[in-house]
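Service request form, structural biology core

Requester: graduate student, group of Dr. S.
Request type: structure prediction, single chain
Budget code: on file
Notes: please return the result as structure tokens.

Sequence provided:
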Amino acid sequence: MLLAIFVFLALTGIATFSLTQGLRSKRSLQTYVELQQNLRAAMQQITQDIRFSARLGPWNDPSSGCSHAGDACSLSDRLSLLVTTGRYTSVAETPGASYSNSTATHLCDARRLTHKLVLIDDGSTSHLVRVTRVLLQRDYSQPCQSSSPANRDLIRHSNNRISGTWRGNTYAYQVEKVTYRLIPDPLDASRTVLYRGGPAGTASGIVAFDVDSIKFSYGVPLNPGAASNSVQKLRFYDSLSAAASALGSSYSDDPASTQNYVGRVVRAIRVTINGSTPEPLKTSGNRGQYQITETVDLR
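Core staff response, request fulfilled:
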């Protein structure tokens, strides 16, 4: 009888131990899977924004100093983009006409631009302006026309003066300026989260928790002057500034410069995200680590 009780207790202990270990393993696996899903969802969001960025490529604002966490710059630890909303219209200005310190631009259909931030781009020169007033002057039953008799709308951007020469096939894109960077976790200051910063009313906020580090690098062709559809090897740089310096004095990391903006020749952006589980895994006693890397083609 005592032997039977001993055997029963031993078997019960083994079963209990096995069940406890199984539950620990299941919980550890679930926690690790949640981390993977978290980082993969973050990568998908970044990839989508990169592919919806305007023809300009990654955005950079060196005039901000690029020293504060919120500055809209493209460096190794952050990525800034002008993400198109899908709304755009033709610029209704006469090709070949020059403009200097202009605070107004004629468009074919300003009704399409419901947000205030607009990128005016002709493929080689671009201006990012904040619209201060929209004047719907066009008769929409008639074709858009820039020459007399003109039939076009007007936007004013009083705080952004632009200069240059109008070219054909110039468009105004409605865009959102977003910047990806790490910020402290609001619930645990010892941890960091991936944050997508943008204007009020957009999908700004925390993209992913449990992100330890993020790294961006920018792929530029060895021969940036070659046709964009040609197959070339890429060299990756940690910032647009580093890429511009490597390419020479004819390139700049400033979109407003009269030199070639280096963002236009970036052909790919490589993103690496590292994360860890919020607590040590029961099976190993250490935090679970996960890394995901993706290279996103822009052309």
